[in-house]
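subagent[fold] <- orchestrator: predict structure for attached chain, return tokens only, no commentary.
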Amino acid sequence: MTDTPKKPASAGKPPAKPVRPKSSRRRSREFAVQGLYEWLLSGGEPGVIDAHVREQEGFDKCDAAHFDALLHGCIAEASDIDAALTRHVDRKTNELSPVEHGVLMIGVYELKHCIDIPYKVAINEAVELAKSFGGTDGHKYVNGVLDKAAVDLRPLEVEAFRASRR
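subagent[fold] -> orchestrator:
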């Protein structure tokens, strides 16, 4: 037997990407999807849900104004958002997983109202939410639905992006 040194477990693997801290906007989306999840399941009072979410650890690190816009905007415009989604989903919105439904609501809300956020960023952020909170392949569904919805909600921006890639 020879005493050969063992390679560390990480030998041969590329170095791990450094972990970047989450942006305050990403945190606001995470808290908003949790609030929407609670609202979709319980139908509770938005003010009570808002207060409950604000008590969670780490809320102080989120963009509270963006959280307010997302949570309260999505709830106030739920029927309009669902109407925008209906054209692109394969079932009734009330039959979607509450996580994916909440993520899609945030995505559509940002596409409609947050023009300062590029449409690709709004879609990618929703996909990341679905990866964090949703089912195994839910992020693929979210990506496909929002990609189609973006054509309706931001046609000029989508066309400009597609033309730039030709």
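orchestrator: received. Logging for downstream: The mean pLDDT is 91. The helical segments are 24-42, 46-54, 64-76, 78-86, 98-113, 119-133, 138-153, 155-164.
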